[in-house]
Structures are given as structure tokens and as C-alpha cells.
């Protein structure tokens, strides 16, 4: 009887963990979700990836809204973690996927320009994801420099100088 109760409670706990993963993603503003989707798309394009990944949490978010001449333009920078799940890559419904705790987080940084809420293809969105243990200080600096150049090339102030909500 105790084993059955323990099995039932562990299943309920797993359901809550899966719901928390989806809830964290759902709580992101739409413009940031688009960046997470870009990162997941790029990650899933690699043949070596076997597991389904989900958004785990944000590290840094910033944006610069340049309402220049009436245009609804934003430059987005989002640094976040993805986490492997126990589901296989390519699963259609990830609502029941539980996080794995035996794999390192994937550290991602994305920056892109949006116009009226849609990601623009120019300048090309930047997506850099790597397993967290392999991330170096040089890579971190390179990410920031790349995103700042992207903003400056469009005549906008630096992305990381803005004060976005976390």
C-alpha cells in the first residue's frame, strides 16, 4: 500500500514539474518566447540532439524599443537556459515531458530585431547555444559584442544599455 501511494505521489510530482516548465515559458512575453523558439529550432536541427528540450529560466532580458518615425521596432536580447527532458526529440506534445537532472543545462543567448511584434530577417537573428560547462568567458563577451554590433548597425543604441524587465 505504501509503495502504491509513493508511486502515485511521484507521478503527481512529475506532472507538476512538467506543468512548471510549460508555465515558465507561457509567462514570458511573446517577444521573448519568439527568441526561445528560435533557439529550440536551431538546437533541434543538430543531428546529435536526442532529447526534447524545454525553456528552463531566464538569466538576462533586455530590450530597446525604438519607436522611430512611428515604426514599432524593438531590439531584443535574451540570455536563458534550456533543459533536457526525458522525452525524445521531435515529440509533438511536450506537456508530459519531465526535466532530466543528469544533463547539463544549455546556455543560450539570442538577439534579434522585431517589427510590429514579428522577428525581422534583417539583421539576421543571432542564436548562440552551448552546454553550460563548455561556455567560456570569451564566448560570453563575443555574444554581447555581436548583439551590440547588430543594434548599432541599424542605428540603434546598444541592447544591453537598456533597462528591460527581468
From TrEMBL:
Heme found in the keyword field: no
Keywords tagged on the record: Disulfide bond, Secreted, Signal
Any GO MF annotation of the entry: signaling receptor binding
Keyword field contains DNA-binding: no
Subcellular locations according to the entry: Secreted
Superkingdom in the source lineage: Eukaryota
Signal peptide range in chain numbering: 1-21
GO biological process entries: inflammatory response; regulation of lipid catabolic process
Entry GO terms, CC: extracellular region
PANTHER family: RETINOIC ACID RECEPTOR RESPONDER PROTEIN 2
Protein name (Swiss-Prot/TrEMBL): Retinoic acid receptor responder protein 2
